Amino acid sequence: MQRHEDGTLVVSATDLVGFLECDHLVTLELERTHGLRDKPFRDDPQLALIQKRGYAHEQAYIGRLRAEGREVLEIDTGDLKSPARLREAEARTLAAMRSGADVIFQATFFDGRWRGHADFLIRRDDRPSDLGAWSYDVADTKLARRVKAAAILQMCVYADLLERLQGVAPETVSVVTGDGIAHPHRLEDYAAYYRAAKSRFEERLAADAAAMADGAAAVVAPATYPEPVDHCRVCPWWSVCVDQRRADDHLSIVAGAARTTRRKLVDAGVPTLTVLAQLPEDRPVPKMTPRVLTRVRRQAALQLRYRQTHELAYELIAPDPDQPGRGLAALPEPSPLDVFWDIESDPWALEDGLEYLLGYVVNDGPEPAFHALWGHDRAGEKAAFEAFIDLVMDRLARDPAMHVYHYGGYESGAMKRLMQRHATREDQVDSILRGKVLVNLYDHVVRSGIRASVESYSIKQIEKFYLPEREGPVTSAGFSVVEYERWMESQDPSILRDIADYNRDDCLSTLGLRDWLERLRVEAGPLFPDGVVPRPTSADPQASADVSKKRAEARAREEALRAGIPADRSERTDDEQGRWLLAGLVDWHEREAKPQWWDYYRLAEASMEDLVADGSALADLEFVGDFGAIKNSRIHRYRFDPAQEYKVKR
After folding, report:
1. Residue 486 predicted with pLDDT over 80
2. What stretch of H or E contains 622?
3. Do residues 620 and 612 make contact, with C-beta atoms less than 8 angstroms apart?
4. Which residues contact 370 (CB under 8 A, 6 or more apart)?
């Protein structure tokens, strides 16, 4: 967003997407154009890495286009900080279009209000235009492996501006995702939504213009607030908004307070963390269940206490009779063969990301021992995964009561993903999942077992209760990705040592957390019936004899077909790829059904609050009545929080 010397406000596709992500972002940008704010500089190595990877992806696509024999003409954008410069760049773009260039890179458009910079214009000879017997469609490169709505919306802006130059609207807009595949989308399918979104954005800008015309030099209308949203992860204004929320004692500081919960609290006259923390226990909040209100009120009280005393505090959560086996009751009996597991991954490496380090700690000797399984390519990733699964199966054979502990859902998701990606150790992974060998300490224990005086329940925050503060060059998962990318360029072994140290600390922290929770389990005894915290019951990891026999036959056929075929797709011949795909068809139906069953069991074990927040479920339903029968079926009506309806429709 730019305001030129003549007062003209110039906007772009990025501004439109930002408006849909966060209305307050528009407020901040407008205030900047009025000279009321300076734009902050966000020094984020992860964002810099994404930009670098994006440029490489863009150049790789240009290389493929040229390899196909297409001429790629690049527009010199130069310094585009004035309307005159923008018009010059658009004139160069139009000249390239009239010349009939096969592909135009960095096409620039400017209609006096909207500017656009399309990555590519692709010529097509089956649709004439004002240019001649040809016209152009829009294509953009994006690192993501799937097409996002924001990418299509951006290209709708470019298509709108392109139509003005060639006299005919493009038929398609294409997103070239990080795997190099072009995904064309019919413009007509999205044009109506784009027009509506653009109209709302223009109305928003008009409100600002009207406010300024009335002399509101310090206020941009309408008033907005920096509610935290997903876009905060990449927004340069992030620190400004965080500072404002802290200064205002905003409810978003309360750990685990969802936006719908905060809205209900504000509507009930509870606008800040402090007011929530001091809310009387017997005061209800309309449309909020007592369980949720108690949770956020107690959480706010703990955080307020820490703010006042600077002393960490926690409290134990009494068991919920409607949801037994959660919280501290979900801790299995410790075993000497337990494993504490953590994964480091790079989402930008190779075609579909790389799980490059599977680290784990075992406590077999006098001191915990850390082991690192590296995989710097697909073959290495497969070997590391197989080695880890084999380790777990070996320890299970020695002690069926052992468990694998991790924090958060990434590791269990990665295990399933690696199993499917490499079509290996499928029966073993099924056995691990069926036997409930994995223990997610965050979802299974911490969230339902304790409350702590922290703003986030990340392991880096929770470990303050049982470990000293971390030190070292790598202290967060995001920085480990940046460092691994640096290693891929330099091959400096010291970088891998630093990443391994970071991963080791995560594994040791998981071990320390399990031990701390075991101590809290003893402390929680009086909260449970008979003064004893129960242990979870064991689950049978074995499949039926018939299923085991069928799987063994399928595995033998698959292994025969895949014998000698490289793990990396890029290294296979066409014949080898055909054999690989044929092997996948042997057990395709069962493999395809696995994610549905995984999701079923995930939802079956989820808490009511998790179900309310989950986009694939409706929860906390209230029975309205029985409305008769249709043949052998009864018609029952329920009501639910409309915030869930919005979530599902979205």
Report:
1. yes
2. strand 622-630
3. yes
4. 359, 360, 361, 500, 504, 507, 508
Burial tier of 4 (Cβ tally within 10 Å: 0-12, 13-18, 19+)? middle
Question: Out of 346-350, 412-416, 603-607, which region has the weakest mean confidence (pLDDT)?
Answer: 603-607
Q: Six-digit token pair at 291?
A: 């369980």
Rounded-to-integer distance, Cα 568 and Cα 565, Å: 9
What tens digit of pLDDT does each residue of 255-298 get?
Answer: 999 888 999 999 999 999 999 999 999 999 998 888 899 999 99
Distance (Å, rounded) from C-alpha 362 to C-alpha 404? 10
Reduce the DSSP state of residue 593 to 3 states and report it.
helix
> Which tens digit of pLDDT belongs to each residue from 296-330?
999 999 999 999 999 999 999 999 887 888 899 99
Q: Mean pLDDT score of the chain, rounded to an integer?
A: 90
Poorest-pLDDT segment among 26-30, 402-406, 541-545, 587-591: 541-545
Per the listing, tokens 């224990």 go with: 445
d(CA 355, CA 388): 13
Rounded Cα–Cα distance for residues 580 and 572 (Å): 9
State yes or no: pLDDT of 219 exceeds 70: no
pTM of the model: 0.86
d(CA 576, CA 185): 32
Distance of CA 553 to the CA centre of its chain: 38
- Taking the C-alpha atoms of residue 30 and residue 220, their distance in angstroms, rounded to an integer, is 7
Phi, psi (5° rounding) for residue 92?
A: -65, -35
> Coil, helix or strand for 339?
strand
Pull the structure tokens for residue 147.
């097409």
Q: What percent of the chain has pLDDT over 90?
A: 64
pLDDT > 90? residue 207: no
**CB of 371 within 8 A of CB of 388?**
no
SS3 424: coil
Q: Which residue has the tokens 């202290």?
A: 475
Partnered with residue 634 across adjacent β-strands are: 629
How many C-beta atoms lie closer than 10 Å to residue 163's C-beta? 16
Residue at 137: amino acid letter:
D
The whole-number pLDDT of residue 414 equals 96
Q: What is the DSSP string of 264-291?
A: HHHHTT--BHHHHHT--TT---TT--HH
CB-based contact 417:354 (threshold 8 Å): no
User: Which secondary-structure segment (H or E) carries 25?
Assistant: helix 23-33
The tokens for 7 are: 């007062």
The phi, psi pair for 105, rounded to 5°, reads -100, 135
- Give me the phi and psi of 628, to 5 degrees please: 100, -165
Question: Residue 528 and residue 533: Cα distance in Å, rounded?
Answer: 6
3-state DSSP assignment of residue 643 = helix
